[in-house]
Backbone:
């Protein structure tokens, strides 16, 4: 990485913004006066009325990835049509939510045209992702393009190659059309009174000094979540057929949940992580994963099978050499689902509890056995994962920020402050690794003892956090420290203040709970 | 672990020796005058003439594990007969090589009798390891017995449970009858002039202050190798149908190679490591594996399938959930073997080169394609693995030695001295992890580019090291840093000074090479 401390941070950041501006196709941008007013919070249905997208384009962008591929295989749809539709939608969406860091219009349309030529010549698809536009979180490398991971000091870093996962998707026929925003520190936002820190009103959400803040398309007073926040907006607004983010504590699942998309966290060492630009490579105590966002479970499955059927472990030998499993869907009577209504540390908000109740009712109606699941010591999981996030006392990150010279958001400081003030020794790190393994084994054993096959729980304490509010993310991060696969999915419900009433007389359990209950 | 610093180390060590003495069945020990004289170096054929074992017992102990199970399945052999035969042989072998730390006569015969009763009642075997006596390296836990890992400070540590792998073997019908010796520090012996250390004439081989030195049954002036040295002697002398050791740099394969047995190093996180007593738990940069020794490839396969068919990953969730693969044996024309004649750092001795030549000739005769393989930067592998063995500057181990108060062998100091004098920081450890992954990927890519499916190379620079000589173990350790599976196997050849001539005029490449060429 090339540090650029000699240049003022604003100059460096402006470089990136120019790349973004220059990457836009002016023909697909609406004049400011045609955009919804800043006071209009829900912009998710703006596309239908904005007149930039044709009916056909609206149809295409509302179609699942699985169905789009089917249509391309039948010759009813071309890759250029598909890519154009998603590109146009992404342009408008960017004007609404500020979710993009760079469009790749020319490359995407060229790739799409080549796919169409291939199909015309052979009558077959290039691969299982043929013609599907995919958006990617900024720090996932694209050859010849900047990859900075929201660090100003890294703005002169040009990716020498596509990230391995991008390469595999391209081999499967995918088209990459837009790159998306992430917060400073690339952590899921975190705001907790730990180690004596005092709360402030500042935040990061999905915000950084380079591109500013990405907002939630369903309510622009809310955050899109983080850290794959741009991906949340992208999939929530159907700007891409699939998206790729990274997740070390909920960074794929939280933005998917906030924006109404599906987010998968695979187990570690499943998808190839090579070519992701991130500080602290070689940290293996809590492994970050790279995984998809989509608009259906079937689309997540399509992505995973397209990637793992290429046996990426024969290139990246760190990966587990395990094929993507094709299993027959379980019959309802075959599985037992345990429900975590409340992790015992921070109580979910009323709309979340109502969504869970609805899901449980639906599951029971189909014949699935659903039981309550008392969480297995989530405090222990919290203590381990927060100690392991920045075991070097975040010196790696702080050094890069110091090199860049950009302002450091208070919530970045918070994120770092979950670590001990001084770096852990290697021996202390080992002890935490061992505690982690004991915790994993204990959790798994407990599930088996209770006869529970999978767990249904909130993705977050609320429907989505307001911009500037604190975030408690253990409902997702617990599965990171356990290294369990999980999916967040929309319930189809929306918050209704008339029925989602705050419990009267609830006494908060802790300072963190207090904050979460009152935002 | 309970430290016992208040008690003199000799008193603690004597506790263990008493356990060993009390565990012997006097009826199976030979009077000193019936033993070979100390000057007789090769004791490997003593059993045939010692008259303690019947012809039938000699037959049983010369039979492969696979065949023993077949005989028990047909009713031609009982578990008690089998266990008794191996127990008797192990008693004599212990008098010859000092390889045992504890016999488990009563438990083993009780388990065997239960197996026989089970077979009588049901007509079926308990499992695929039914009635097979297995020896285990001392630091592999057995419920209710001491597990000290050759550290005096840990002598009061009583295992609360069998190690998970022992449990799985018992479920598969195995019998555990003897536990075996290991060197101080439980490292493969290492003696290299690094960081300015001066060579001395001291060594550890398979020696510790508790039980003393285990020697090589084929030549008692040579070491049995380490660190699973007792296991090497055990399998080399057919004292067990199978053995279990641990390997972080060659600790299963070196003793197997030195003693004429087969040794498998699985990839990491394949067999469950839970219940191994070892300092530095939580160290994950170079993972130690627990894996079998045997007297044939088929027996190694039997062990692995018996263990992995039980899906241990459903108990120890750190394990890779990958079944043991049943593959049809390759046809000779389907595979290409690359031969490493010399790793470029230290040249193998003439008998080793002759053994390789013999193997290559035999392989070519069967139609296998064999090509020379230029090693892919083994110096880089060496630099990474030596830095990662004791990244805490061996403080963990030194503290335990200080607690115990026992004398520290010079070669233990050497083993520790490969680490930097001061502990690495967590960030330095991360950098090494990343280098390791880059090296792994590069090695794999190179093999693929050259069309090489597997590599044949020396297990060690010589046939076996003399007691007190230096050891260079990168020929095995390179596969640890690469985390590749490998097997050492006997060639059937023996050293012949008449034909294994030292090259005249060879100029050594380095101080290490010089030492190895002149021992």
Residues:
């Amino acid at each position: 990485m090339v540090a650029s401390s000699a240049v003022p941070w604003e100059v460096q950041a402006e470089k990136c913004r120019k790349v973004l501006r220059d990457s836009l196709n002016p023909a697909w941008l609406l004049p400011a006066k045609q955009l919804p007013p800043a006071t209009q919070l829900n912009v998710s249905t703006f596309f239908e009325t904005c007149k930039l997208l044709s009916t056909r384009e609206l149809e295409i962008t509302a179609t699942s990835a699985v169905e789009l591929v089917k249509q391309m295989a039948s010759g009813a749809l071309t890759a250029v049509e598909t890519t154009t539709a998603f590109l146009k939608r992404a342009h408008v969406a960017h004007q609404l939510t500020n979710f993009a860091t760079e469009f790749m219009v020319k490359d995407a349309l060229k790739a799409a045209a080549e796919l169409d030529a291939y199909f015309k010549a052979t009558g077959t698809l290039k691969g299982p992702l043929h013609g599907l536009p995919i958006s990617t979180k900024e720090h996932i490398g694209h050859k010849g393009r900047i990859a900075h991971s929201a660090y100003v000091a890294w703005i002169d870093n040009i990716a020498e190659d596509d990230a391995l996962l991008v390469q595999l998707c391209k081999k499967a026929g995918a088209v990459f059309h837009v790159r998306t925003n992430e917060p400073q520190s690339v952590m899921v936002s975190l705001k907790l009174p730990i180690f004596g820190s005092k709360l402030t009103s500042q935040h990061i959400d999905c915000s950084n000094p380079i591109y500013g803040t990405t907002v939630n398309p369903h309510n622009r007073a809310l955050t899109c979540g983080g850290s794959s926040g741009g991906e949340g907006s992208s999939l929530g607004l159907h700007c891409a057929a699939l998206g790729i983010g990274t997740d070390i504590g909920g960074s794929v699942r939280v933005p998917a949940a906030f924006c109404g998309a599906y987010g998968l966290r695979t187990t570690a060492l499943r998808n190839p992580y090579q070519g992701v630009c991130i500080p602290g490579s070689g940290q293996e105590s809590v492994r970050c994963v790279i995984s998809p966002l989509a608009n259906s479970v079937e689309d997540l499955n399509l992505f995973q099978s397209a990637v793992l059927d290429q046996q990426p472990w024969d290139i990246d030998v760190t990966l587990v050499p395990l094929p993507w499993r094709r299993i027959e869907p379980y019959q309802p009577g075959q599985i037992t689902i345990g429900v975590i209504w409340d992790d015992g540390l921070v109580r979910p908000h009323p709309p979340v509890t109502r969504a869970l109740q609805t899901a449980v009712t639906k599951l029971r109606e189909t014949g699935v056995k659903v039981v309550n699941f008392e969480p297995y010591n989530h405090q222990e999981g919290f203590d381990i994962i927060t100690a392991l996030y920045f075991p070097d006392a975040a010196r790696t990150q702080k050094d890069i920020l110091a090199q860049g010279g950009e302002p450091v958001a208070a919530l970045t400081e918070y994120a770092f402050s979950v670590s001990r003030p001084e770096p852990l020794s290697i021996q202390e790190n080992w002890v935490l690794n061992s505690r982690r393994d004991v915790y994993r084994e204990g959790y798994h054993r407990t599930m088996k003892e209770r006869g529970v096959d999978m767990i249904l729980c909130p993705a977050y304490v609320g429907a989505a956090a307001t911009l500037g509010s604190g975030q408690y993310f253990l409902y997702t991060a617990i599965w990171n420290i356990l290294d369990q696969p999980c999916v967040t999915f929309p319930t189809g419900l929306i918050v209704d203040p008339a029925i989602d009433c705050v419990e009267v007389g609830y006494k908060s359990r802790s300072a963190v709970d207090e904050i979460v209950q009152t935002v």
Observations:
- The first strand of chain A starts at residue 100 and ends at 103.
- Chain A has a mean pLDDT of 92.
- The radius of gyration of chain A is 22 Å.
